[in-house]
């Protein structure tokens, strides 16, 4: 078997098996804890403006969607944001973008310090996004699928006027099914292509990825967004993979049947979202490329970061509306 990028996350058949999220407490409107308190008996922390800090990386799609949702809902006024460097080394995510190389609120150099303060025995990968309690300096949650849903449902009292309903209750059964399909075949599917260490595991992931992209293209051919005429959580989750597709996944992860720019419906849809306030203004292609090509030595041992692709098309008219 070929060398794996993450040995502990590689199955017996050479397939990539993503590690579970270690911290799964939630911040909820019905927490039994008083302001300033810790989690209640059900692991629910109190909704409290100014208390929590979202740690993200501009390169990471899982963190990126939390940052998009935070901005779309106007919650960046009540939840602060810390940004780590796109280069993750053996010490993990670093706060080298801040003066003195420390997060100005948490006072740490590495996100791993916050993980160890929360669980001294933790030995898995340190991941973003992470919501951190600034009172105790501990991780509340790194459960990225739940974080964005809770921002939409538990923090409603602090949404900006006119904020979109990204997780409408009436659509949730169909929305949850679609989100699961997108995660399995697209969001995580590109990683299952890139981190596969057997031909069979790669072939399966590659086939499922492009089959799903074809189905999504068909769905979007007749409507502007995945659930109709309004942006939802599903669009946010698909966007963060599509915006990285040509810059990273097509070449680095061998997802090379077609480029995004060669899939007309998805390319127009992605440009439509990119040009929507809260989406494109959170994208950093330099961070994306430096992270993927510079932190996976099993895949790209030279560490060379490509100069392409041409990014000018992202601002071209999309023709959707």
UniProtKB/TrEMBL annotation:
Positions that bind glutathione: 93, 125-128
One GO cellular component term noted in the UniProt record for this chain: cytoplasm
PROSITE patterns named among the record's database cross-references: GST_CTER
UniProt xrefs under CDD domains: GST_C_Omega_like (cd03190)
Region (Disordered): 1-21, 26-45
InterPro entries, sorted: Glutathione-S-Trfase_C-like (IPR010987), Glutathione-S-Trfase_C_sf (IPR036282), Glutathione_S-Trfase (IPR040079), Glutathione_S-Trfase_N (IPR004045), GST_Omega-like_C (IPR047047), GST_Omega/GSH (IPR016639), Thioredoxin-like_sf (IPR036249)
Source domain of life: Bacteria
Residues of the active site: 60, 191
Chain ranges of the GST C-terminal domain: 165-295
Name listed for the protein in its UniProt record: Glutathione S-transferase
Organism: Polymorphospora rubra
Origin organism lineage: Bacteria, Bacillati, Actinomycetota, Actinomycetes, Micromonosporales
């Amino acid at each position: 078997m070929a060398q794996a990028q993450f040995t502990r996350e590689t199955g017996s058949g050479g397939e990539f098996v993503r590690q579970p999220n270690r911290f799964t407490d939630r911040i909820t409107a019905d927490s039994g804890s008083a302001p300033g308190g810790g989690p209640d008996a059900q692991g629910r922390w109190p909704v409290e403006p100014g208390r929590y800090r979202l740690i993200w990386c501009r390169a990471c799609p899982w963190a990126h969607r939390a940052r998009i949702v935070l901005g779309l809902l106007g919650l960046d006024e009540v939840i602060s944001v810390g940004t780590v460097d796109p280069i993750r080394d053996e010490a993990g995510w670093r706060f080298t973008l801040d003066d003195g190389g420390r997060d100005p609120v948490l006072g740490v150099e590495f996100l791993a310090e916050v993980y160890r303060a929360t669980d001294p025995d933790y030995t898995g990968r340190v991941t973003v996004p992470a919501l951190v309690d600034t009172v105790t300096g501990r991780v509340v949650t790194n459960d990225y699928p739940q974080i964005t849903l809770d921002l939409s449902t538990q923090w409603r009292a602090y949404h900006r006027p006119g904020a979109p309903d990204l997780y409408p209750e009436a659509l949730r059964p169909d929305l949850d099914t679609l989100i699961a399909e997108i995660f399995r075949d697209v969001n995580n599917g590109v990683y299952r292509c890139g981190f596969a260490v057997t031909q069979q595991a790669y072939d399966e992931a590659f086939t499922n990825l492009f089959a799903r992209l074809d189905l999504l293209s068909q769905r979007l051919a007749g409507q502007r967004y995945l659930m109709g005429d309004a942006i939802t959580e599903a669009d946010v989750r698909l966007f963060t993979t599509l915006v990285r597709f040509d810059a990273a996944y097509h070449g680095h992860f061998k997802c090379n049947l077609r480029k995004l720019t060669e899939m007309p419906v998805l390319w127009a849809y992605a440009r439509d979202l990119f040009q929507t306030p809260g989406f494109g203004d959170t994208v950093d292609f330099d961070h994306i490329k430096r992270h993927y090509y510079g932190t996976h030595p099993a895949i790209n041992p030279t560490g060379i970061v490509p100069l392409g692709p041409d990014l000018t098309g992202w601002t071209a008219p999309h023709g959707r509306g």
